[in-house]
Write a structure and sequence with these properties.
With about 90 residues, the protein is mostly helical. The protein has four helices and no strands. The protein has a domain of about 50 residues.
């Protein structure tokens, strides 16, 4: 009986863990944005020519600098699908 009362008293004394705050979004400068845009269009060109390795390399560079770039994420998915379709 004492053990049950002790356990009940201990349950309320431990504070719940707070989730870690989300990282702040990275700010990309105008110069970086211009370079990322150039790399994106080069990646699209490589994708359209069937050079999936080069397209994926450029997409990875873009996403390393700007992980939330929706265009690069979509292109990465298209490249992965094309690579999968191209393998026998």
């Amino acid at each position: 009986m004492f053990a049950l009362a002790f356990l009940a008293a201990c349950q309320g004394s431990v504070p719940p863990k707070k989730p870690a705050p989300a990282p702040a979004p990275k700010v990309v400068s105008a110069e970086e944005r211009a370079a990322l845009d150039r790399d994106y269009f080069l990646a699209v060109g490589a994708y359209e020519k069937g050079d999936y390795a080069e397209a994926l390399r450029l997409v990875k560079l873009i996403l390393a600098a700007d992980p939330v770039n929706k265009d690069a994420q979509a292109l990465r998915s298209r490249v992965a699908a094309a690579q999968k379709a191209a393998t026998p």
